[in-house]
Design a protein that fits this description.
Largest sheet: 5 strands, antiparallel
InterPro entries: GAF, GAF-like_dom_sf, Iso_Racemase_Enz_sf, MaiA/AMDase
Strand order of the largest sheet: 10-9-13-12-11
Radius of gyration: 22 Å
Protein name: GAF domain-containing protein
Number of strands: 13
CATH class of the largest domain: Alpha Beta
Organism: Streptomyces boluensis
Pfam families: Amdase, GAF
Distance between the termini: 26 Å
Length: about 400
């Protein structure tokens, strides 16, 4: 991207959609002129489970529109539609590969953006707010189940006319979001880019206590993140404020897990402006079959022996076993099966802001390579946290 112009987002837009352009412009107020959005339309008028509807999402019209957007030298491309949610995520992944091959521009889709949001926030039980007919809604539930997401489905509005989706009042969409935030849902997704849910997210998140991932918002967020812009804007819900930080944390933890062969990695941090507190993890990566600790807030983390040691020593704690001080909380052993760990402090302005934990279910000697991988991760997250404070 040139230093002398705003970042440009190229959006492939369903032809009958009247929502995503004005909503995107509204969301871009948070960019203060540093981002512009550019749209090309592809024919989409009806959402159903039949060959006529499916044909609207063929690749060639999208590639033709993408080439036109490439003439504007956009920095990222998105298919701003949720068709992959019922046609299959692999179809979207293949589309993204084809768009990038044809233009040389990084790309994503609304469905992939929603899945990325769920990964960033560790969501595995997702409420769904949908305008579609029930058979399309059921297909979405099945598609997301293949991606590891159990769904709580609020009653869909039962529409199949794409233009009509945007005429559903925002107050009705808000009530549907509320209905989806039940039965253990860890977040709610508004799965349609022609529904007015984006500007309800901030208020509803505060009322419901869970993230609200509107499709238009999620698509813009992921496009900006993919282009390296990492938005952190207030007023539009957690995804545009905190999502890029959480996604980065998740990526770092996943890398440490792979590099060390550990069973679990977590990051805890006090960043109130981003809704983060050390008593709940900001991110977690897990080995196969390992139990999550992400939503367990039962311990006062700052008062743990191991964390008090970090506070005093300000260096990495390497524990091949727990037979010597400082001892971890017994629940870590008894409930979560941890028998060895490394903890590394993250400091900002001389304060212990947070720490990375690397867990093993068995006693093990942590190698120099393991400790180097943790040191790299610590430096990365220290820099990222420092940049946000």
């Amino acid at each position: 991207m040139s230093d002398h112009r705003p970042l440009r987002v190229g959006m492939l837009t369903p032809s009958s959609n009247t929502c995503l352009e004005p909503v995107t412009y509204g969301l871009l107020r948070g960019a203060a002129g540093s981002v512009t959005a550019h749209f090309a339309r592809v024919p989409v008028t009806r959402i159903a489970l039949d060959t006529g509807s499916d044909a609207q999402f063929d690749r060639e019209p999208m590639l033709a529109a993408a080439r036109q957007l490439a003439d504007a030298k956009v920095d990222v491309l998105v298919w701003n539609g949720t068709s992959g949610s019922w046609l299959g995520v692999e179809r979207d992944r293949a589309l993204v590969a084809a768009l990038t091959e044809a233009t040389g521009i990084p790309a994503t889709t609304s469905t992939l953006a929603l899945l990325d949001a769920c990964a960033a926030y560790g969501v595995n039980r997702l409420g769904l707010a949908l305008p579609y007919t029930r058979d399309v809604a059921d297909a979405i539930v099945a598609t997301y189940a293949k991606e590891g997401l159990a769904c709580v489905l609020a009653e869909p509005f039962g529409e199949d006319d794409n233009e009509a989706f945007a005429r559903i009042p925002a107050t009705d969409v808000a009530r549907q979001i509320e209905a989806a935030a039940t039965d253990g849902a860890q977040a709610v997704a508004v799965v349609c880019t022609n529904v007015y849910g984006a500007f309800e997210a901030e208020r509803l998140e505060q009322a419901l206590g869970v993230p609200v991932f509107d499709s238009v918002t999620a698509t813009l967020w992921r496009a900006l993140d993919l282009a390296g812009a990492a938005p952190s804007w207030d007023g539009y819900g957690t995804l545009l404020r905190d999502g890029s930080l959480r996604a980065h944390v998740q990526s770092v933890l996943t890398d440490v897990l792979a590099a060390t062969g550990a069973d679990r990695t977590t990051f805890r941090v006090d960043l109130p402006a981003h809704g983060l507190h050390v008593d709940l993890t900001a991110g977690e990566a897990l080995g196969e079959g390992v139990r999550s600790i992400r939503r367990d807030a039962s311990l006062d983390q700052r008062r743990l022996n191991t964390v008090e040691w970090l506070e005093a020593e300000r260096r990495t704690l390497v524990q091949p076993h727990f037979r010597a001080d400082p001892h971890p909380p017994q629940a870590l052993v008894d409930v979560y099966g941890v028998n060895a760990q490394m903890l590394s402090p993250v400091e900002t302005r001389g304060e212990l802001t947070g720490w990375i934990s690397v867990h093993s279910m068995r006693e093990r000697d942590w190698t120099e390579a393991d400790q180097r991988a943790l040191a790299v991760a610590t430096a990365d997250l220290t820099a990222r946290v420092s940049a946000t404070t």
